[in-house]
Amino acid sequence: MKKYILTIFAAAAALSATSCGNWLDVNDDPNAVTSVENGLVIPSIELNLVNVSGFYGHMLGSFYSDQMAIKPGGPQYLGLAHWDASSISSGQAVGYTRMIYRDSYTKVIGNATTLRAKAESEKNWGDYLVATVLRAYGFQILVDAFGETPYSEALDPSNLAPKYDEGKDVYAGILAELDDALSKVSLTDKASDNMLFSSSSDINNWIQFANALKLRILMRESAVVDVKSAVEALVKENNFPSSDIGFDSSVWTNQAGLDNPIYGEAVRVRGDVGTGRTIEFCAHMAVTGTMMEVNDGRLPAKYNVSAKYGNYEGGFIDEQMSKEIDAGYLGKKSEKTQENTWAELKINYDTPMWLITVAETEFFLAEYYAKLANDSNKAKEHYEAAIDASFATHGVSGSEKIYGEESRYAWDASKASELIGIQKWVALAGINGFESWCELRRTGYPQFGPKTGAEIYSKWVELAKANVADGKDNPTPLAMDLEAEGVYVPGTIFTPVNVVSLSANTLLGRLMYATYSTDTNSNAPSQKDPSTKVFWAK
Q1: Angstrom distance (rounded) from CA 507 to CA 532
Q2: Under DSSP, is residue 355 helix (H, G, I), strand (E, B) or coil?
Q3: Is the separation of the CB atoms in 186 and 125 below 8 Å?
Q4: SS3 assignment for 60-86
Q5: How confident is the model at residue 323, as a pLDDT?
Q6: What angle do CA 485, 468, 454 make, to 5 degrees?
Q7: Among candidate residues 135, 52, 164, 146, the one with its CA nearest the CA of residue 100
Q8: pLDDT digits (tens, 9 = 90+) for 342-374
Q9: Interatomic CA distance for residues 447 and 492, integer angstroms
Q10: Whether this model's pTM surpasses 0.85
Q11: pLDDT recorded at residue 472
């Protein structure tokens, strides 16, 4: 696999070069890659999809769902930490937004559309399904990120100003595409070489992937569209993935440009390769506090402990914090507070990047049975299976402790939405931040706690001053201290201390339309307020 990945990275570079053309208006030449064999095109599309979802989307979503916070020395991530999605936001907030839009169209959807047309002309229904799944996933990301996006007129090189379709219409379109591809394929068809399934040609892998993606899309719009019969059909078929889908550890190499891209940026370039620590972001108090409350066995799999406290204390102060350091609130000024105060995301060069997990599918099934099928026993079964699967993804045991009878998160049909929402948020932490942000916006769980980030910070400073006055070596207030003061409640979230463009206890509802499109497309709509919800969250 390691040797194979080198070939694919080279092919990906070649495809990127041939498919950029006039990407500013999202209408690349759909015939640009027809000379490359399918077994090289598919891995290239997969690689770029994983990068869009697992890197750009994951980073954005992790900050926007209270799963990551910044540390001193992290100015690149200030816009993300402030939940600032405005077009004039600084650093990675704008950069990642642009890359999600650009790469989804040019490197995922564009190449998948070409492959799909080629496979259809050859009646190669295996690769037709593969291309359709990858294309549909790309459009799902765009709808969930921006709300509206070019679809019906996209990828037509003769039209430099494609209209933006409503998200609901794009969802309907990609569901129809998936149904069409599934209707054409049979189990005797084969898939060309690919990386998601270890180059396996077994088309059932892709049928299961398509079913899981359909379930995600259908459940995501279930509050605004009648999806019951469509989900019932999927449940009756019962052909979902039995293992997580994405790039596992065998794909990555301990070499710059060939490693997990988050590791490459946050550790190899901006952090400490020796310790594996970053200097710019850390775990967020909201998620680690929630997990510490129940001594969650996934903590050591998700995070490196705080070197100062030896526990999984998360941060939340979304600025460079020079005043906190100068005041001694984080300990002695000479200490490397940016490195040792808070727990960090456990990230290695070969950390997997998942597109869709068994746990996610099980949570959707639990929600289906709880809300659409009114079967509490089945809902409980899938809820517990989801937590089991999440623990399995992290390679740890003890899942029954989370949903046991004495646990706060034991199944209770009257609290189904809350339980599923919070546990899905925990499960997705460090796994897929983009999907975590999507589900947080859709379900409303975890809910906002009793105080805003600014109010929590005010109490934090009060406690820190007292600790400094008392001469404590480690004066930094902990989550348990804030909980004792009634300003923080495990299992809740809060807006950033320095939230931008949003009122208190308001989620960032969408990303701003990418300037790559708005600067050149005369049919691009006016920017919406960042609190504006996408269609499925209304």
Answers
A1: 9
A2: strand
A3: yes
A4: HHHHHCCCEEECCCCHHHHHHHCCCCC
A5: 64
A6: 45
A7: 52
A8: 898 999 999 999 999 999 999 999 999 999 999
A9: 5
A10: yes
A11: 84
Report the candidate in 359, 451, 366, 450 with the shortest Cα–Cα distance to residue 415. Answer: 366
C-alpha distances (whole Å) from 11 to each of 3, 40, 191, 451 are 13, 6, 18, 50
Kindly give the interhelix angle for 38-51 and 110-121, rounded to the nearest 10 degrees.
150
Q: Cα(538)–Cα(109) distance, rounded to whole angstroms?
A: 27
Q: Tell me, what's the pLDDT at 35?
A: 54
Would you give the distance in Å from CA 374 to the centre of its chain? 29
pLDDT of residue 72: 67
Phi, psi of 164 (to 5 degrees): -90, 120
pLDDT at position 154:
95
In angstroms, the CA 2 to CA 203 distance is: 23
d(CA 461, CA 478): 12
Residue 535 per-residue DSSP state:
G
**Within 13 Å and on the Cβ side, how many CA atoms surround 198?**
5
Q: Is 412 helix (H, G, I), strand (E, B) or coil?
A: coil
Residue that is written with structure tokens 């190899």 in the block: 268
| Residues 434-451: tens digit of each pLDDT | 999 999 999 999 999 999
C-alpha closest to that of 5 among 258, 197, 353, 193: 258
Residues in the chain where the model's pLDDT stays below 70: 1-36, 72-74, 87-91, 199, 319-340
In whole angstroms, how far apart are CA 515 and each of 59, 159, 225, 387? 20, 18, 31, 40
Which residue reads 């932490």 in tokens? 429
436 with 67: CB under 8 angstroms? Answer: yes
Is the omega angle on the peptide bond into residue 496 within 30 degrees of 0, that is, cis?
no
Q: For residue 330, what are the CA distances in angstroms to 178, 465, 475, 476? A: 53, 10, 6, 5
What are residue 202's phi and psi, to 5 degrees?
Answer: -65, 110
pLDDT at 435: 98
Looking at residue 258, its amino acid is L
In terms of phi and psi (left: phi > 0; alpha: psi -120 to 50; beta: otherwise), the region of 397 is beta
